[in-house]
Specification:
Blueprint (H helix, E strand, L loop, with lengths): L1 H24 L3 H5 L20 E9 L5 E10 L4 E5 L6 H7 L8 E6 L2 E2 L5 H6 L1 E4 L8 E2 H6 L7 H10 L3 H5 L8 E2 L8 H15 L3 E5 L7 H15 L3 E5 L3 H6 L2 E6 L2 E6 L1 H5 L5 H15 L1
Parallel strand pairs: 3-10, 3-11, 6-9, 9-10
Antiparallel strand pairs: 1-2, 1-4, 4-5, 7-8, 11-12
Helix pairs in contact: 6-8, 8-9
This protein binds adenosine-5'-triphosphate.
């Protein structure tokens, strides 16, 4: 009896973990990929990606019957480039990120990828082209290898190790007594914030998707971890269309385009150079604020 009970218990536990993960990260493509009942429009076609250019056109959005959170957003994220979303808390940055893999559908406006309205493509084909690195990477109960494999269930062991190397995670993984077979998650090895982030980046790399959505961590890591995470991110971002909710000044400065949001609207956009020299702009003010904070530390 006990033996029959065990798998059910594990499954129930996994279910709870998954629900918690969705709540925690608001979206985890790896889980949502495995949901069997994706409702697609009749006649939905497979997304065909060439440059992975993302365009939001007059996008409005509200959660349920709540207030309007996005009030007519127009953003172009060019293929292979990095677009950074910045702005005060509550501006709607995370909401934009959740609309791209269609965790929610905007009631008004369109989101196009290489000219195809994402409402007209199958969710499975859309999400196959998207990887996501959240601010608080979630680790599932399982081995380190399992956790990276969530990015792409059919990945080979060699591909997993290659992704871990690119994400600067291989060395700390090999330093564990069981290497890639080390259990992590609630009952497993406790990893540092930087190590979790690198595993999450390895998970995104193994997915090898042309679009990377990134919610940059706000919490500070120690300098060594910070440097490793930064190198891992640079690797993950290279050659991809990246939409990043940027919290670090260095990310913003390097971005090809900065989109400044406030209260559900885009209030400014341009490069760091362009925006920083407009003293009356919100970006210049945010920028000064950050400089002040850094000085004070
Ligand atoms: P932050 O940097 O604090 O995450 P943000 O710019 O990413 O801010 P959002 O997280 O998109 O902003 O939130 C925009 C607004 O939408 C906020 O008022 C927030 O309370 C609300 N909101 C976010 N998620 C939900 C949700 N699941 N249900 C209802 N309201 C939500």
């Amino acid at each position: 009896l006990l033996m029959a009970y065990e798998p059910a218990k594990r499954l129930a536990k996994l279910q709870i973990q998954m629900e918690r993960a969705v709540v925690n990260a608001r979206m985890i493509y790896a889980i949502l990929d495995t949901q069997p009942h994706q409702r697609d429009k009749p006649g939905a076609h497979e997304l065909q990606v060439r440059e992975a250019r993302i365009e939001l056109k007059n996008v409005h959005f509200a959660y349920g019957t709540g207030p309007e959170i996005l009030k007519g957003i127009d953003i172009v994220a060019e293929g292979g480039k990095t677009t950074a979303l910045v702005g005060p808390s509550g501006a709607g940055k995370s909401t934009i990120i959740t609309l791209i893999p269609r965790f929610y559908d905007p009631p008004q406006g369109q989101i196009l990828i290489d000219g195809q309205d994402i409402a007209d493509v199958t969710k499975a084909s859309l999400r196959r082209h998207i990887a996501y690195v959240s601010q608080q990477p979630y680790l599932f109960e399982g081995t380190i290898r399992d956790n990276i494999r969530y990015g792409r269930p059919e990945a080979t062991d060699a591909e997993i190790e290659e992704a871990a190397k690119l994400a600067y995670a291989h060395d700390f993984i090999m330093a564990q007594p069981q290497g890639y077979e080390t259990p992590v998650g609630e009952n497993g090895l406790t990893l540092s914030g930087g190590q979790r982030q690198r595993l999450s980046i390895a998970r995104a790399l193994v997915r090898n998707a042309p679009i990377l959505l990134l919610d940059e961590a706000t919490s500070a890591l120690d300098t060594e971890s910070e440097a490793a995470v930064q190198k891992a991110l640079d690797e993950a971002m290279s050659g991809r269309t990246v939409v990043v909710i940027a919290h670090r000044l260095s990310t913003v400065v390097k971005a090809d385009k900065i989109v400044v949001m406030q209260e559900g609207r885009v209030v400014e956009e341009g490069s760091h150079q362009e925006l920083a020299t407009r003293p009356e702009g919100l970006y210049a003010r945010l920028n000064n604020l950050q400089a002040t904070v850094r000085k004070d530390q």
